[in-house]
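User: For a reading group we're discussing how well predicted structures match intuition. Take Cytochrome C Planctomycete-type domain-containing protein. Before you show the prediction, I'll give you the sequence so everyone sees exactly what went in.
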Amino acid sequence: MSKKKTIIGFILVMQLLFIINSCTKTTTVPINDAPVITTTVSFSKDIQPILTKSCALSGCHNGAIAPNLSATSSYDALEGGNLVNTGIPANSVVYLWLTGKEAISMPAGAPNNPSNINALMLAWITQGAKNN
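Assistant: Thanks. Here is the predicted 3D structure of Cytochrome C Planctomycete-type domain-containing protein, as structure tokens, for the group to look at:
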């Protein structure tokens, strides 16, 4: 078998494994070794403090750049801006931004998103994205 055929075969096997793995996941998967969140996630107590500290900063998502994630606007901005998808939480635009699948990982310049925001955000959306 030629080297080219071996490489193509390897790529096809990896793609098949990726597709099979993607189709069989039915629960929240830990992000960067973050624990799976099994408790109720509160928007006001768990999500908003992280948004305020890491996102709603001067020159960022405090009204300067959409969405406005300041305390008075964030829930409406996420829900009204169609940034959450409770039907398929991992396809939520806000989650894709946080994980770097949509653009650069947010918050920009923060290593591994502070306080496991990826896992918290995914759990909150999975739990119905309630304004609690």
